[in-house]
Amino acid sequence: MHKKKTNRTVLNHYSAWKYVVLVATVIIMLLSALPSWFGEDPAVIVDQKDAPLSVVTIKQKLESEGMSVARVSQQDGHTTIVLANATDQNHAKELISNLVPENDIVTLAMVPAAPKWLLEMGFKPIKLGLDLRGGVQFLLDVDMNEVFHSHAEQAQDSIKNFAREERIRGVRVDVSHDSILEIKAPSEDAVAEIRQYVREQFPQWVVRGDGDLNLTMALSENEENTLTSLTVQQNLQTMRSRIEELGITEAAVQRQGQHRIRIELPGVQDPAAAKNVIGATASLAFYEVKPERSVGTITIPDQDGRPIHVVRKPVLSGEHIVDARAGMGEMGMPEVNITLDSAGGKMMSDFSGKHIGKPMATGYSEYSRDAKGHVEQSNTIISVATIQSQLGNRFRITGVGQLADAQNLALLLRAGSLTAPVTIVEERTIGPSLGAENIKNGFEALALGLSLTLLFMAVWYRKLGWVANLALVINMVMLLGLIALLPGAVLTLPGIAGLVLTIGMAVDTNVLIFERIKEKLREGRSMAQSIDLGFSSAFATILDSNITTLISAATLYAIGNGPIQGFALTLGLGLLTSMFTGIFASRAVINIFWGKDSRRGVRV
């Protein structure tokens, strides 16, 4: 006779590997969060191409100007000067820039104040947003009308050249203010030929008949959207290059809306230099000079206001410039030494070889916004020089003003020319003292919320409440460690609000579980069975509520920007860590102290 077996198991038991995973995860997150506790120090970093400066020289120079230097370190061609006061950064950078050679790169930075052993493990502090660190924010508007108008002018030139090659006389092509081409032809046959040419060569344009012998052309909506996206993206890359040239690290350059760019420069307290370079749209172009105005030429004034007649289409434009350096010429006048890419070098070589002994003009253009908000372009011929010999991919231009003007122009040319004019429509400066006050107030609110929550849970749920408090502290550590680990994650003031909200959500998870446990105990079940059923029955509710909130956080992050994304980030990460600590960590602690029954029980 066989004895019937029953499927019995020990309730509330975790395997050893689960405890190992839990402990290892908490330790890693704790180590990741620790550098944020130590904070960061303001610094100036010098990337040396030649021999480094003496540490003593640097300290003496800065201290003679009343600045307190915390420490100076040199390693692998980098000199890091750590300052005691963040307000001294910009002044220190200017002084050091005058001490080092021109090829050395001087940048502003915030360096971790954590112990060296912790940093060598790869852990870094949480990056702070503009509202916490202080700095400057610009909102730029990209003017697409100039881009559309430029495309219309290119189409205009192509149609005129086609009519000239096909010997169609009497064709008139005009570009309206809203970048619409108006074509007038002498006959129906001419209209048909031009229409066929436009359909083949300009499929992205919409062609309509406007009367018997008239045609209108306009960019399609899809093409306008494509051009806008490409132009803004190219301008983003140019802005990032310009900011790198300024020596500003940890800057955020992002697209906002359809044709706007938001730039955040944490730690920058003097926005003048950044504004002059970021908001500038200066570019160079080289033109063939004509003795008088004729078909295909335009008139651009020189710096003295005299008219210079040049061919409309430039020989070479700024996008082919790969390097530009300011210097002093043989006559002691400022100049800019230009280096072109291979394509630009070939174009310049071909043109100059065919025009030796003839003049070539260097045109300088920039955009600005008038009192009515309209974008205006100003063009100036800064030099007219006779081509003495065939030029290659290296040459120099003069007539650029003072040395400071030459240096500024060289910086802009190295960083690239914008594909569309931009103007600064909003500027916001947050001082370091205000940023420090935001941090203080934000974390005071976080500490107050955390303290009150810990007190309530300890009083209301007694022993289980202490488990919830332990899980809550672990949750905060894990959340801060996770923010520090994620690349691109930035903590903002609304992000601190998300941390405070996370406290409530984390406790809510434990409250749901503990209330289920109390229900099962009132039904007369054992402690082990009540714990087991309490966690399993509350899991579905916790999962549903957190998923719906996580969807909201993901939506906010996707469509928001800046502070909104900071709030959404901490909210979303807080949901994940709250579920981990509320369900997994608290269950592990309860299993150890109260989970095992005095007898073996059957799962219900």
Please summarize what this structure is.
With 604 residues, the protein is of the alpha+beta class.
Q: Low-confidence segments, ≥5 residues, pLDDT <50?
A: 1-7, 598-604
Instruction: Bin the helical content.
Output: 40-55%
Q: How many strands, what sense, and barrel or not for the largest sheet?
A: 4 strands, antiparallel
What integer value in Å does the Rg equal? 34 Å
Average of per-residue pLDDT values:
79
Alpha carbon gap, first and last residue: 29 Å
How much of the sequence lies in strands comes to 15-25%
What sort of overall outline do the alpha carbons produce when their principal axes are compared?
Answer: flat
Number of strands: 23
Number of helices: 15
* Major sheet: arrangement of strands: 2-3-1-4
